[in-house]
Amino acid sequence: MIKSRLKNFLFFLIFGSCALFxxxxxxxxxxxxxxxxxxxxxxFLICGFxxxxxxxxxxxxxxxxxxxxxxxTICLKNIGLYAISGIMFYIVGYNLAYGxxxxxxxxxxxxxxxxxxxxxxxxxxxxxxxxMVFCATTVSIVSGTxxxxxxxxxxxxxxxxxxGIIYPIEMGWQWGGGWLAAMGFSDFAGSTLVxxxxxxxxxxxxxxxxPRIGRFTADGKANxxxxxxxxxxxxxxxxxxxxxxxxxxxxxxxxxxxxxxxAVSDIFVNTNIAACSGLIVAVALSQALFGKVDITxxxxxxxAGLVSITAEPLAPSVPTAILVGGVGGLIAVFGTKLIENLKxxxxxxxxxxxxxxxxxxxxxxxxxxxGTSYAVQTIGALSVVLFVFAIxxxxxxxxxxxxxxxxxxxxELVGSDAIxxxxxxxxxx
Length: 429
Hints:
With 429 residues, this protein is mainly alpha-helical. It is built from 16 helices and no strands.
């Protein structure tokens, strides 16, 4: 009996020692650098598909805000621009952004070539994917503003130029180590580089294309055009809110250490808090100004809070995040009225949400980030906005006077679904 137990003990001792040895050997083969590489790559991929999911959010938000006769077209434009952005950012966009000489202005017009180098800290293709979905987000912003009076193919052509050339150049000024980075400009996740830039391109289009038929009366008074599906717009906002955690959290660019994990967690909290603050402020303000709570202001207030915090979601304390997001909510309401008074037709309210709140959020970085200044942040934001607006205006004017960008008045009244797509989103027949 004793011999049997002794044999069993010796067996398990020897077996356990061998198992421990081989386990340690396997663990030793995975260096700390390799482990961090895996986690950083996963951060890019997971956050990247969260940002890709934002494309669905834009599609649903815009589908809910336009009239039923244009919903299928909106869906086509949103899924089409995503595909175009993917191709263009691979062919030319990535190297235009990241091939910039240090302190320079423009990279190279060459296609992306992946180089798997562990020294970068992540897989090259994961970085490309993460950056590409940011590019697609910029283009998505344009779609909503100029909805209901832009033909499909001119829009797709503009999307290709914005995704392949305009956005990569200005984004590279900071994220690619260009002149804004050298100056000390900071835009953590793209309040200016993505959102204000998309808003500037949208503003140029809205001015050159003009308002929808019936949006403004002969004497300049705004004529409201009701949204077609508020539940769909609300769903789109929730999807965008969810995707924003990937947008801001992934911009930490690493999660291979305890400090990085804490930073991503802090970013999530500040991102969420800013959205909550923006929504609450917009709701309260709409009640105070108009005597009723406007659901569209509530939705855009949340989005404006998200855009505002995107330039610096890590450094602020929670009270500061509440302040930054709350000012975004103010901009969502007052900015909408400002745009309306300027006789600019913005179907979804993207200009106050993305352009104006993006500029505010970028300047507000100096509140919590001691390494920046209000002057540099302002110069950086305005430089990007003016560049994108100027180049986009040239492109829109060229398209307008060559192939044409707008349907005829008769076609616009019928709706683009029947004229261009051939499938109506809501068939009551």
